[in-house]
Write a structure and sequence with these properties.
By secondary structure, the chain is mainly α. It is built from 12 helices and no strands. Helix 4 packs antiparallel against helix 11 and helix 5 packs across helix 7. The radius of gyration is 19 Å and the shape is globular.
């Protein structure tokens, strides 16, 4: 067993912790934008990407200049574009659409089942055998999700009568994000984590903007000032900074340890949603959250 230096371990844990908390603020900013403005999901996502892409393009340029001898094949470019669009375009769009109808807390809990989907995809496509303990973890995870889901419905927190519709959007988002994780896990060893993240995000941003200009009739300009503020905050604090914090943490303490620390994400979302959005915290929601965390941590430990 490799023992990490204390400073490297503590720095890695801190980076992973801050990254997980920052990632969890995305749902909060989206819900605040919906509450305080009449913005639609596609326009809000477009502004998130507009504010994010300069950072990622700059990072991609720097990483390319530092490793000029590394050139991608056409196949690698296509795979990076497809995987990036899956994770940052399709998943993000589904997430933003779903958040129109569900609370930030339930959104984060549904999304957090993605490790179980990664496990199942790996078994289906790469013939990786699922151990009995992992099947138990999957069962515990979905039991926790069912508890939280039922309590949300029973608590009459359904928005516009479309709670189930929003939950389905978020579940498909979790599925597409799991596919992104599986695909990126195959590409990152070849490309490098930071470089992959920069290129994937840049290409996904282009896809989001193309979607906006083709399908939307809303102007990007003359919107309420809060739209630009929330878009900027989402880009910097919920997208750019946490993505590189997590990459840096993985480099220091490994993906397994980062996954464990990242389990704080749903908890931080529930707390922030209660403070900033006034969402109620129920005993069933807490119980469901604990079960989901137990299931995900078992999967992480088994892997």
């Amino acid at each position: 067993m490799k023992i990490l230096p204390t400073n490297k371990l503590l720095t890695g844990i801190l980076l992973a912790l801050v990254g997980a908390v920052l990632f969890s603020t995305k749902a909060i900013f989206v819900k605040l934008a919906y509450r305080d403005t009449n913005i639609d999901a596609v326009t809000l996502l477009a502004w998130r990407m507009i504010f994010s892409v300069p950072f990622f393009v700059g990072a991609a340029f720097v990483s390319s200049s530092q490793s000029s001898n590394t050139k991608f094949t056409i196949k690698e470019w296509v795979l990076i574009a497809l995987i990036g669009c899956l994770g940052y375009y399709i998943s993000s769009l589904l997430d933003f659409l779903g958040l129109q109808f569900v609370s930030a807390s339930i959104e984060r809990l549904i999304l957090f089942i993605y490790p179980t989907l990664v496990l199942i995809m790996s078994a289906l496509f790469f013939k990786i055998k699922i151990k009995p303990m992992q099947w138990l973890a999957v069962t515990i995870t979905y039991a926790g999700l069912a508890l939280a889901f039922v309590s949300e419905v029973a608590g009459q927190t359904v928005e516009n009568g479309n709670f189930v519709k929003g939950a389905v959007y978020i579940f498909i988002c979790a599925f597409t994000y799991a596919a992104y994780i599986v695909g990126s896990g195959r590409m990152i060893p070849k490309v490098g984590a930071s470089k992959f993240n920069s290129y994937a995000m840049s290409l996904a941003s282009i896809a989001v903007l193309l979607h906006f200009f083709i399908r939307s009739e809303v102007s990007l300009w003359h919107l309420p000032a809060l739209v630009y503020l929330y878009g900027f905050l989402m880009a910097v604090f919920s997208t750019v900074l946490p993505s590189y914090f997590v990459v840096a943490a993985i480099d220091r303490i490994g993906s397994g340890n980062v996954a464990v620390v990242g389990s704080v994400g749903p908890v931080s979302t529930i707390i922030l949603a209660s403070i900033l959005l006034g969402e109620q915290i129920t005993i069933w929601q807490i119980t469901g959250t604990i079960l989901i965390l137990i299931g995900v941590l078992i999967i992480g430990h088994q892997k």
